[in-house]
Design brief:
This protein is 43% helix and 12% strand. By secondary structure, the chain is an alpha/beta fold. It is elongated, with a radius of gyration of 28 Å. The structure holds manganese (II) ion.
Length: 337
């Protein structure tokens, strides 16, 4: 008889997914169902997504993490996953957009997070089923601070993930199953095996998110447009990205880079003034024409006309300052990270 394994939030933990399929004795003919959140925080989202995309008898629901990718709302863990998924990112996100928000059979219903007890699943708003912030607000409106499943009285078992319940799954009245046991945070990956309704679980191999989020910090920071932001925007961004739980070394490098660029301004001003004087002497009345032929021409003309602030020399962004430096033959570090 075909078994069905419903699996809690996997979050890119491919090794544990294989461990769980093995522990549950899943064969090719058995059905594997994910409650959603295949990606984000874990080390190997690509292998997890590819498994669900390529394995016959597989189904994944759309979790709030998939939904963020689909809607292009990328917080830090999505920015990391985007880099991890690499060249196939767009294609995988198009696939995510095809995933259903619930799955129901005669013997079970599955949803990533919420439902309205007594209301058919396809009449429950998508954001409630996915567990987004707006969905949570709707649930709070209906049920206050109590979780929706405390109002669930149907006989049909219901399975969900989304809310980490600790290393052991939540099981109420043998028909309410909360399976997010925090594998990406070093706890466990849990599945529910049907038709027996038996819990199967494997330990996480590491606190993945702790490692992944610091390992990917530099690559993610490298994708930000540091050079074309204004100096003020760079400093504001650095401040907003400071996180007491993260190694600040990469942000320190960005900060140091900005400081060294700004610190080069007196030297650039000296060079610029020396060039203005030199060209003025050599070209006399022809200053404009001679300066225009110079790589730093527009700065020379503005400086001579007194239209360049001595403090920042008209350079509001690192990119402009680097362009001026290069035009004056001064080498400055171009890469912040
Ligand atoms: Mn989740």
């Amino acid at each position: 008889m075909q078994s069905t394994l419903i699996i809690g939030d996997i979050h890119g933990c491919h090794a544990e997914l294989l461990d769980l399929l093995d522990r549950a004795g899943i064969g090719d003919d058995d059905l594997v169902v994910s409650v959603g959140d295949l990606v984000d925080r874990g080390p190997d989202p690509t292998a997890v997504v590819e498994l669900f995309r390529s394995r016959p008898n597989s189904l994944a629901l759309c979790g709030n993490h998939e939904r963020k990718h689909i809607r292009g709302v990328l917080s830090y863990s999505q920015q990391v996953a985007k880099l991890q998924l690499g060249a196939d990112y767009e294609d995988h996100v198009r696939w995510m957009a095809t995933l259903p928000y619930h799955w129901e059979r005669d013997d079970v219903r599955v949803v990533h997070w919420g439902l309205y007890p007594g209301v058919p699943l396809d009449e429950v708003p998508e954001d409630v089923r996915a567990g987004t912030t707006s969905g949570d607000a709707r649930l709070r409106e209906r049920y206050g601070d109590r979780p929706w499943y405390e109002f669930y009285t149907d006989d049909k078992p219901v399975v969900f993930g989304h809310s980490v319940v600790g290393p052991e799954p939540l099981v109420l009245r043998d028909r309410i199953f909360g399976l997010d046991t925090g594998v990406c945070h070093g706890m466990r990956l849990t599945g529910l095996l049907l038709p027996q309704f038996k819990i199967v679980s494997v330990p996480a191999r590491a606190d993945h998110w702790e490692r992944v989020r610091s390992e990917w910090q530099a690559p993610v920071l490298r994708t930000l447009p540091w050079q074309t932001m204004t100096f003020e925007q760079v400093e504001k961004k650095v401040r907003s990205l400071r996180d007491p739980e993260l190694d600040g070394a990469v942000l320190d490098r960005v900060q140091g880079w900005v400081t060294s660029l700004r610190g080069a301004l007196p030297q650039l001003r000296e060079r610029l003034d020396a060039e203005v004087a030199r060209i003025g002497e050599a070209a006399g009345e022809e200053f404009g024409r001679a300066a225009a032929a110079h790589p730093a021409g527009s700065w020379l003309l503005r400086r001579r006309a007194g239209k360049l602030s001595p403090e920042h020399l008209g350079c509001s962004s690192p990119q402009q300052l680097l362009a001026l430096a290069s035009a004056l033959g001064v080498t400055l570090p171009a890469d912040p990270v």
